[in-house]
Every structure is written in structure tokens, then in C-alpha cells.
Design a protein that fits this description.
Two copies of one chain form a homodimer.
Chain A (H helix, E strand, L loop, with lengths): L7 H17 L5 H11 L2 H11 L3 H9 L8 H4 L7 H11 L13 H19 L6 H14 L4 H17 L4 H17 L16 H7 L7
């Protein structure tokens, strides 16, 4: 999903317009999110992101193999011991009424970055201890900015939430900034989560997974 | 300098417009900054900011007395021993070709907040170890957000810089986020700088001033 506008000034204007549109939209407006993703996916930053990820052997291998997670049986994972990653992930998905949408094999590295991050987004929620609420989303967005540091998209989502708070609800800005800082520091400390073989970790205790990935959750 | 638009939706739209305008302006465009300040200074957030500051005795006293710093003789301060706050402040001002503009006595608490922050801004630069460059400004903006947590203006300046980086120069976003985090954590740890009697501290070693205010500079 590459931004097709070749002229830098044109796509920068398009990105600003998409940013303003999502800042004016209600939270969770997926049309606005998809428009922002399209506007923020330029060739240069995606190239830089691939270069960044390729420095980690497991991320580089994932980019080469481009394997989707495939179908995930949440009901079966929910039968695992309650301390396992698999149980925690299934419980998160079921209790939030979320469904894992198995991705198609990706045709390119750029497409794989998009599909892999979508497919694993809720696993990142779980392992970083970021709940499905505003502060959890901001913490995870800052974590993503730290891990995928050259992604205009995650930076835009995070920045949009700061803008919404300063315009509409300055009293929450303090908690937003705290969540941002926690997510950023956690993302900088943790190993690169892109391309981790989550399927092999379902039966591992979640605290052991966090420890092995150097993820220090807040509280 | 209160935003005179009473209807919340109208001034929120005005604030968003000013935000977009400053995001599109060159760095350091003082017309755009003043417009943002006017648009972000609504009654409610200023009232909340006064309540927030009034919890600190020295800040509360400053709000009551509303005394400007007055004329500052930079050449004289520059003759103080080189470890003093006064020397460091004068050196910062002289080497950056900056002039201290003595403020007029303020007619209200709201006006004093504006003039006091303008008058002491470069002292904050010096005591927080934030140089006059992009990363120093971002660090100090995040420090201000932490200290003046209900200020839409400082939150807007900080957010604007994140937006500019994600649109125009994603390769600097990582350093911007690091500066933001450092400033935020420093601002949360430090004592409230609003209303500190700087005039009594010129001859004190700067490290002693930082220590007494619990300011832990980076590096």
C-alpha cells in the first residue's frame, strides 16, 4: 500500500490533510486510519524501515520468508494454562470481542510489513501489557514508534492523539504523556518484536516471553 | 491574552487552524507562535493552570505579587564566577545574541503567567541544560508540558514539532522522541520552576541551583 504521489510536496500535503482528517474524526474511525496509512506509506520511509529491521536476524528472516500467522484457534488457546502467552492472547481477543483475521501471503517486503504488523498488533498489546483503552493505545503507539522508528504512520497516530487531547481535553494530556513515555522507554529497551515467531511461544508462560524479549511492563 | 471566542466548537476550530498554520510555517515564525498562543489561551485551561500552580507556595506567591524580573544587566552577570547561574545565563544570552526584554507589571494572574514564562524562558533553558537548537527546544517544551501540564500552548508546540518531523524528516523523529522523553521526565522530577526567585540565585553555583530544584540534566 504505497503512497502513489511521487512529488514530495504533493504527498506531504496529502499526509497533512489525512492527519487533520483523523484529528477531526471520532476515535477508531477505520476509514480515516486507512487513509492515514496510505498517505504515510512513502517509498523512502518504507525503504529506511526495511533497512532498520534487517539489522535484526529474526526480523530479516521474517521479511525474507513473509509467512502469515495463519488461522489461530482462539478457543483452543483459551484452554492452555492461564499463565501462558496463548491463554493471555486468546483471553484478550475473546473478552474484547476481537477476531484474528488471517492474512494472505504478502507479495513484497512492504506488503509484509503492513500485514505482519496488523496480524500481530494484538499480540503486541498483550505482551506489552497495553489494554484496549486510550492509554493502552497511546502506550502501544509510542512502543511502535520506538520499535519501528521510521514509520510515519505510528508517529502520526501518536501525534494525532496528543493533538486531540490539547484541543478537546487538556486534562487528560498528563496521562497521555505518561503513557507515551512508558511506551517509548519500553519499546527502546525491548528486543525487536517484528518477526518474532509467536506461534512457537503460545505454551510459554507470558512472563517468560516478556523476560526473553526484555519487555518490562508498567505495574 | 485570552481567546475571545466563547463558543467551544469555534475556538477548538480556531486552535486547530492555528496548529496547522504553525505546522506549515518555518521554524521560529513568531507571528504563527503568537497566533497559536492566542488561540490556545482559553478561560478554562488558564483557570485550571492557575489552580495547578497555586498548590506550590512560591508559585502561589508569585501569582499574587505578579512582579516582573525587571531590567537585567547581562554584562555585569557575565563578570560573576563562571560556575554561577548568573554567569551561565548571561553567557547563554550573549552567545546566542538574545536580549532580556523586561516585562511590564501584569494586570491579572493570566497576564502574569504569560509575561513570567516569557521573561524566564531562557533561564529555564539554562537550568535544564537545553541548548538553543531543535532538540533543546523540544526537551524544554516537554519540560514545560510536564510543569505547566494544563497548558494547551506548550502541548501544541511540542505536538507541532512531532508533526513536522513525521511529515518532513522522519529520520529525526527518534532523536525528537528521546528529547521529549528526557524533558518530560526532568519536568516531572523537578520542583515547580514557575515563580522561583531567580534574582536571588544569580551568584549561586548553577549545579547547586539545579540540585536545590531537583533538576537532573541529561549528560
Amino acid at each position: 500500500m504505497l503512497n502513489s504521489l511521487e512529488n514530495p510536496q504533493t504527498w506531504q500535503q496529502s499526509l497533512l490533510s489525512s492527519f487533520v482528517a483523523i484529528a477531526e474524526a471520532e476515535y477508531g474511525d477505520f476509514v480515516a486510519i486507512d487513509q492515514l496509512l496510505a498517505a504515510s506509506s512513502d517509498q523512502k520511509s518504507l525503504y529506511l524501515l526495511v533497512q532498520h529491521l534487517a539489522q535484526y536476524p529474526h526480523s530479516k528472516m521474517a521479511l525474507a520468508n513473509r509467512l502469515p500467522l495463519g488461522v489461530i484457534d482462539l478457543a483452543a488457546l483459551h484452554q492452555l494454562p492461564t499463565d501462558t502467552l496463548g491463554y493471555h492472547y486468546a483471553d484478550h481477543m475473546l473478552s474484547n470481542n476481537l477476531h484474528h483475521l488471517a492474512a494472505q501471503p504478502a507479495a513484497s517486503e512492504y506488503e509484509f510489513i503492513d500485514t505482519h504488523i496488523r496480524e500481530t498488533h494484538d499480540i503486541w498489546h498483550v505482551v506489552t501489557g497495553s489494554p484496549i483503552n486510550m492509554l493502552g493505545e497511546i502506550q502501544l503507539q509510542a512502543f511502535c514508534v520506538a520499535q519501528l522508528q521510521l514509520s510515519r504512520f505510528w508517529m502520526a497516530l501518536l501525534t494525532k492523539n496528543l493533538l486531540k487531547s490539547l484541543i478537546h481535553d487538556i486534562e487528560v494530556a498528563d496521562s497521555y504523556m505518561t503513557a507515551l513515555t512508558n511506551g517509548w522507554l519500553m519499546g527502546k529497551t525491548a528486543q525487536c518484536l517484528f518477526g518474532v515467531d509467536w506461534l512457537s511461544l503460545w505454551e510459554t508462560p507470558i512472563e517468560q516471553v516478556r523476560s526473553s524479549l526484555n519487555i518490562h511492563t508498567v505495574n
